[in-house]
């Protein structure tokens, strides 16, 4: 049985988006930086400013770089330091995940990270969607004592992964919260809540806004050129509000 209220978690990488999440009726935020590359670890200044301007619970995504989740020793040291840092800063949870080269959960490293987290809540992030065997990975997560798994069902998005997500929810029982994410929108979240008997959904509610620069040099790009420096992504307050209303009808 699901709880009476379904949790709506919004992934944000700015203070503006965090404020929109709160105003729109989100229950908590997942805080990161660089959402356009799937999310990287935020710095402490962003964390402090989000805390200053909102009072939602903050789960902090910790990912030292873009790409896969098989980390070098140096990268893992950074990840350990970040868990310590955000535990000390009072984050409500950390969102982490490490895999082995053969597509299994790296139990040795995850055990260390869980120890460093102390009594913090832990979400295993979408590294889960890159594992070789979902059922085996879920059993490993149970042994680690991790409370939440963010997943698209090992697929590109939740619509394609619904059957796997449903199976994971049944297997998890009351030991692990399976939280669908990737492709969850204000338009499909109500239907997904009918089809997937879980207690939480994850979405970003992204919208494009025009940057404030009036002068725009067309010959310069700060990145690979695929993303304009003059276009910004923000969480849309109205999309979040619509998602909240849709969930409240299902809870």
The CATH superfamily label reads Copper homeostasis (CutC) domain
The proportion of strand residues reads: 15-25%
Based on secondary structure, the structural category is alpha/beta
Low-confidence stretches: none
Question: What is the percent of helical residues?
Answer: 25-40%
CATH class: Alpha Beta
Overall geometry comes to: globular
Number of domains: 1
The overall pLDDT, averaged over residues, is 93
CATH-assigned fold name = TIM Barrel
Tally of helical segments: 8
Query: How many β strands by DSSP?
Result: 10
CATH architecture identity: Alpha-Beta Barrel
Q: Evaluate the radius of gyration.
A: 18 Å
For the biggest β-sheet, the strand order reads: 7-6-5-4-3-2-1-8
Order of helices and strands: EHEHEHEHEHEHEHEEEH
Distance between the termini: 11 Å
Main beta sheet, described?
A: 8 strands, parallel
Structural key phrases:
single chain, 251 residues, alpha/beta, TIM Barrel, eight-stranded parallel sheet, two-stranded antiparallel ribbon, 18% strand, globular
Task: Describe this entry's structure for a reader.
The chain is 36% helix and 18% strand. It contains eight helices and ten strands. It has helices spanning 15-24, 44-53, 73-89, 107-117, 134-144, 162-172, 189-195, 237-250, and strands spanning 7-12, 28-31, 58-61, 93-96, 121-124, 148-151, 177-180, 200-203, 206-210, 231-235. Helix 5 links the parallel strand 5 (121-124) and strand 6. Helix 3 (73-89) packs parallel to helix 4 (107-117), helix 5 runs parallel beside helix 6 and helix 7 packs parallel to helix 8. 40% of the residues are buried.
